[in-house]
Amino acid sequence: MIETPSPTGAAAPKVRPMTRAEVAAFIAAIGEANPEGQTELSFGTPFSLLVAVVLSAQATDASVNKASVGLFADAPDPAAMVRLGEEGVARHIRAIGLWRAKARNVVALSQALLDRHGGAVPGDRAALEALPGVGRKTANVVLNVAFGESTMAVDTHIFRLGNRTGLAAGKTPRVVEDGLVRRIPKAVLRPAHHWLILHGRYVCKARVPECWRCVARAWCHYPDKLTQPPRK
Q: What does pTM read for this prediction?
């Protein structure tokens, strides 16, 4: 069992790992509650998905969607994005965190797509991770959403859930990812990525998990479950 940091920085209680049967039941419950779960980023092509995911680092999906409407209207493909240039991209995304670095990476990855892949987004992990600004999490999202692969992109929500509930504890996103991939039934691994993100975003929240309305609380090992909303 791993002692993980709480959202406030204090040491959290040790959480007993779920059994495989409990993992399967937990995933089935949140899947039944949100069977149509999918990414909340707005995109139309693998390229716009890739750019949106790069922009979403340390930013909300809502803020990215707001900024990307104009960006993708001006630059729907890699060639247009390169023509738009860093300053042109920056004008659209200034409200998003780390916008300067992201503008630079979006133009650079667009040029790399033109130079190495004929302007197409590759469906290969190594090729994706070789693009500027693209790490393992971004590659996992693109492979899952655009190419239908059963990958698990561990964002802050999934990292929290893995550690808090007993699904798959780990001190790094990669350890949590490997644990989830190993323990979640393979038949539902691909959609489970979306179910977990949405569950963490809207139910198992960082500061106050809303256990009183969690459909999977019967299998969760979090010791401090709230049976009703806290008094304001």
A: 0.88
Q: Given 115, 137, 178, 186, which residue is catalytic?
A: 137
* pLDDT one digit per residue (tens) for the chain, 232 residues: 333 334 333 345 578 999 999 999 999 999 999 988 899 999 999 999 999 999 999 899 999 999 999 999 999 999 999 999 999 999 999 999 899 999 999 999 999 999 999 999 999 999 999 999 999 999 999 999 999 999 999 999 999 999 999 999 999 999 999 999 999 999 999 999 999 999 999 999 999 999 999 999 999 999 988 878 877 7
For residue 82, being part of any structural domain is answered with yes
CATH code (residue 70): 1.10.340.30
Which one of the listed residues 115, 155, 186, 205 is annotated catalytic?
155
Q: Is 224 tagged catalytic?
A: no
66 is catalytic: no
How many residues comprise the chain?
232
